[in-house]
Amino acid sequence: MIFTNDFFATGSTLPNDDLVQLVDSNTSENVNYKKINAWYYDVGPVIADGIIIRKRYDIPTGTYEYYALTSFLSGKPINIELFGAKGNSRTDDTLAFINAAKFVNGLPDFVSVDINDSNENWSLEKQSVTIVGNSPIGYKILDTIKFEKPVNFLVDTIFYRGEKNKAALIFQNSHKNVIDTNVTAKPGAEFTSEDYIGVWIQGAAYSKIKVGASFFTKGIVCEANKVPGLFEGFAWNDIELKSLQSNLESFVIRNTNDGWANANRVTGGEFGSFRGQINESQPINRKRAFIKFEKDGLSSGCNSWLFLNQSFEGKLLGINENELVETLCFDFSAAPCYGISIVEPRIENVNDNRAGIFHTGSQFEFKSNQYTSVTDFTDQNNIRYIGENPIVLLDENLNDDFKINRMINNYRHTYVKKLEPYNDRTGLFPDAYYANRFCQIFKINSHNTRLWVKWYRKSEIVLFDENKDIINDLTKLTQQISLFDYRPQDYYIPDNGPALTNKTILIGNESNSDFVNSMTFIEEAKYVGIIQQPYPNSRLKVMLNQNDKGKIEKVKFLGVATDTYPTINNPSDMARFSFNTGEKFYDYTTFQTSVIKKSGVNAAVSGYTVDTVAGSRKFIINTGAINEIAEGHLFYLTANGGNRFFRITELNGNIITTDLPSDVTLSGTAITFPVCTFETY
Question: If 0-12 CB within 10 Å is exposed, 13-18 middle and 19+ buried, where does residue 448 land?
């Protein structure tokens, strides 16, 4: 029986056989070593780590010979015990892991099929070895273990008991690797350094990553860092999360130096914070976050992340352990993530409160088709989200039930179910500078109450003071824009010249789709109007925490009837609008109601002649001002004296489509737009 330490000892006189059978001095297991001169590359002192590849001095020749572990040559996993680890959770195994990293870091990057053919460089794959740890108890380390080159690392239980200002495990440049590990720091909730990290993965592609970490400032960090020596991306990885308990931030995705962390899938993960509240006497005492996105000033946000089946639980406090510590499930306050999907998360429910909340004030966007599913979430004001789109909140008459997937559910929220309907082809409020706008009015009883709005394409907000006068002060409107949580820089006050006396806050343009934002209000705002245009598939949803019910109310000014539209004009002042018989308009500046007695436009327009487009119900306008008519306007053939009216259903340049019952043939025919009549009282 010959031990490895004896065979490779300086001055050993044991025979230099080409193949030797030895007993490992650390593990007492049988091992075989084979004499080699090359391992893809020439073998020398650079890659001879003294454990897997060893050198032995040959006394007769006065030269060194090299031996390699045969299991390594055949591609089998390397047990961490071969490097000296004891795996009893109490002995310091730091040196063993450092030696394992030293061996990996000393290996060449690539192995070519034919080093004489430069075209083979295009098929190169990074080499990697596999390190395993089979201890049923675990390994204790006191310092950072850093793998600079690709490695398959399958060591499940690691206890880090080193200083609280450095990372436990660092993996760099992973490429088609498997990383399966879990690291636990000393239990506690005192965080003094941002660099106190459990598992730090810098640059990875096409890898299977199965990790967990507990009691660190940052449990798991997936970083894309564009610096020499690191792969600049973190992409196309399949990540499976284990238990992540009582970290300040458990799973962090970070872009640095213009790196890009994109297109990854994250499955599972049991997130919890059971070690009590954070010690506020420490330098780092911010609110906990389970999943957080970060970036520096040189980097853009992440995109295309898929999260599946995460489980979030919070710390319970109080005598009866029924008070929930606030924790952020997804925190986008430090960086955006575009194209994210969150599918079937699970959140602890304690006394109808939610452990997990979205962090508002971040670039978390609800876009059409962006989410496979966002379920069972609330924001920091307890606003609940079901499916792809937020549920509409706010209505004093709601009974707290709503239908989803044909099922009746009862949840603690309210929503607006009595928004005024869009009145087809009829313009509204206020003092329009384009046709067809629709406004919903809400009374603000508490300006610090948060309101959520989902709108569609080029929408507006208008503010009113306590006298129901429109707030036109640009300084105040600019202050209101700053109170928008998401991307306030996208909101602006249109500059339409002195002719437009009433100011609004505008977002988007006609090509944009859905927008979601939340906001509080300036103190001077006592009413807010949310204005939209009737684009195809247009929609408006307004949300409010049920606990804030009464702080913001759906109203119509001065209690006008439900079939009456609020305006700041009477119909004769509303240019390019078309009105229908029976419609009512309340002018809150004069406190009068106007009732349309006969359909038509607000003022006379004349001089129109048309030709028909053969085989259709379309007219070509030959004469007359195109900019004075709009979709929805009624007209009649002048020669018929108004015996029958028709309506413009579409206006495209000088071509109008009508609701004529059949095709007609006309040439140079005059048409007349009737003027509406109304009564005011």
Answer: exposed
Q: Are residues 492 and 515 in the same domain?
A: yes
Q: Which range marks the domain in which residue 635 is found?
A: 601-680
- β-partners of residue 84 are none
pLDDT digits (tens, 9 = 90+) for 220-251: 999 999 999 999 999 999 999 998 988 999 99
Mean pLDDT, all residues of the chain: 78
**Chain segment 632-669, per-residue pLDDT in tens:** 888 888 887 777 888 888 888 889 888 888 877 888 88
Same-domain status, 525 and 660: no
Quick one: what percent of the chain has pLDDT higher than 90? 32
**Please, which residues bridge with residue 601 across strands?**
578, 675
Query: What pLDDT shows up at residue 59?
Result: 80
Q: How many residues does the chain have?
A: 681
Whether residue 116 lies inside any domain: the answer is yes
For 280-345, the three-class secondary structure string (H helix, E strand, C coil) is: CCCCECCCCEEEEEEECCCCCCEEEEEEECCEECCCEECCCCCEECCEEEEEEEECCEECCEEECC
The set of residues, in sequence order, having a beta carbon less than 8 Å from that of 113 and lying 6+ positions away, is 120, 123
> 3-state DSSP call for residue 509?
coil
Residue 286 contacts residue 248 (beta carbons within 8 Å): yes
Give yes or no for a contact between 470 and 527, defined as CB atoms under 8 angstroms apart: no
Last residue of a domain, one of 352, 380, 408: 380
pLDDT at 329 (0 to 100): 78
User: Six-digit token pair at 55?
Assistant: 């050198």
pLDDT tens across 553-612, in order?
877 654 445 566 767 677 877 777 778 888 887 776 666 778 888 888 888 888 899 988
Per DSSP, 6 falls in state H
Give yes or no: residues 226 and 365 share one domain: yes
3-class SS of residue 639: helix
Distance CA 67, CA 36 (A): 6
Domain boundary pick from 592, 620, 640: 592
d(CA 167, CA 213): 11
Q: Report d(CA 640, CA 637) in Å as an integer.
A: 6
